[in-house]
Design brief:
446 residues; alpha/beta; Immunoglobulin-like; 3 domains; 18% helix; binds zinc ion
Length: 446
């Protein structure tokens, strides 16, 4: 399966379209390359005695700066953007002892690596403490709570009686969308992803683009109106150097460094994920990450921020609706797991569908269900042989297959994304290939 081509959200699409349309090759959008300069990083891994990474270990930094974070799925931690000074690093987890107990780094003036080895009953890799490995019945899996910060770009249009853009265009209410989405994600994750509301900001402005351009009310409405005409006169929109008509992406560093102090607040644990809402042409990625542990989740990692660990970011489209939020999450699952699983090839297997892997369909990929005969084909009623149900036996799959068609998920896109995600491994323990049997520990890592 080639890399998903669904990239910048709906940004060139007319208002009602809920899919990804014909997105640009990702190479067309220039990566933000500003580097953090002159900063010290203290990083390392926390493992058990056999070298397996311990996730969800709290690592506390104290001394010249104080903060804490959870280790990632591979047991990694990283405190970045530190000034010269003296620090201590201490891992903690219930019923788990670490060697060394604490690492002291006095008068540090360059980056340092400190690793820790845990022992004790609470040190099972994967962070669940269960023994697992018996087809879903071994051990218990703890739900993971994640708080989201919401930023809604919803400019006040003074020329239209001070109406907000969403109201003026009759687009969807982001808060209503979020309520539905949080409920759908609980279902999709078998209640392992518990999302709770954090800070909420509504912004009376358009996001600054990578090249510094910022729409005004007038230039934006001109562009939006042009996009609804056939043919679409793309010169009415901001699209320098973009032969395919797509504008530049939003400048994520500008957003993170704004007076919302997003990285500092994320690093301090005030919230875990950033959920942005925007309209066509604002230039948000559907799903990407910032931070020292950022990986590709379809959109490119934000380079050069002061976020530590992994900040998951969504660019939701209030013009498109809640189903498109699930679509974005699908990309985060697909690309994120490919990047984060210690042994990612098994994710390729999970994503197989009949069109590209005849006779080997499993659970499908965000753009193709097991039965799709073309992209975004979520209601294809043809019968195919699929092993998707066998993933519920993970890590002890039997190879069993069944004949399915789209009625398995209700023959619509929303049902498909939920149905597919529910088949992701979500039991206790660690598989023989080193992957945690609960893939939500990767999907939700921060
Ligand atoms: Zn897509």
């Amino acid at each position: 399966m080639t890399r998903s081509q669904c990239t910048i959200l709906s940004l060139v699409l007319a208002s009602a379209y809920a899919g990804c349309g014909a997105p640009p090759p990702e190479d067309d959008v220039t990566l933000i390359q500003d580097a953090v300069t002159g900063n010290i990083v203290i990083s390392g891994r926390v493992t058990n005695s056999s070298g397996s990474g311990l996730s969800n270990v709290t690592v506390t930094l104290a001394g010249s700066a104080s903060t804490s974070q959870q280790t990632t799925a591979t047991g990694a931690y990283s405190f970045g953007a530190l000034a010269s000074g003296s620090y201590s690093v201490r891992p903690t987890r219930t019923n788990c002892a670490f060697s060394p107990t604490v690492a002291n780094l006095n008068n540090l003036n360059s980056s340092a690596t400190r690793n820790f080895v845990g022992s004790g009953s609470g040190c099972a890799a994967g962070g669940t403490g269960g023994s697992g490995g018996t087809g879903g019945s071994g051990g218990t899996v703890t739900p993971i709570t994640r708080k989201y910060m919401t930023i809604i770009y919803n400019p006040i249009i003074e020329s239209q009686g001070n109406a907000r853009l969403i109201t003026l265009q009759g687009w969807n209410n982001p808060d209503t969308m979020t309520t539905q989405f949080v409920a759908d994600m609980a279902q999709a994750s078998n209640n392992l992803a518990v999302y709770v509301a954090g800070p909420r900001v509504e912004i009376d402005a358009f996001p600054v683009k990578e090249d510094g351009f910022q729409y005004t009310d007038a230039t934006y409405l001109t562009c939006l109106e042009a996009s609804r005409q056939i043919p679409f006169d793309r010169t009415k929109c901001h699209k320098p150097d973009q032969a395919d008509g797509f504008g530049y992406a939003a400048n994520y560093l500008t957003i993170l460094n704004s007076n919302n102090n997003i990285c500092a607040r994320f690093n301090a644990g005030e919230f875990d994920e950033l959920w942005m809402f925007g309209a066509p042409f604002m230039g948000f990625w559907e799903s990407n990450q910032a931070g020292t542990q950022a990986v590709d989740t379809n959109g490119p990692p934000v380079v050069g921020s002061t976020c530590q660990g992994r900040l998951n970011i969504f660019g939701f489209a209030y013009n498109a609706g809640e189903v498109n939020m699930l679509h974005n999450y699908g990309h985060r699952i697909d690309r994120g797991l490919k990047s984060m699983l210690p042994n990612p090839s098994v994710m390729d297997e999970f994503m197989r569908e009949e069109l590209h892997n005849p006779g080997q369909a499993q659970c499908g990929i965000t753009h193709y269900t097991p039965t799709s005969t073309f992209e975004y084909d979520y209601n294809n009623t043809r019968n195919v042989t699929s092993s998707c149900a066998d993933w519920l036996n993970y890590p002890n799959r039997t190879g069993a297959t069944a004949t399915i068609n789209c009625s398995a998920w209700g023959c619509d896109e929303r049902g498909y994304h939920i149905w597919r995600a529910r088949h992701l491994p979500h039991v206790a323990g660690v598989a023989a290939n080193g992957n945690s049997n609960n893939w939500w520990t990767y999907i939700l890592s921060r």
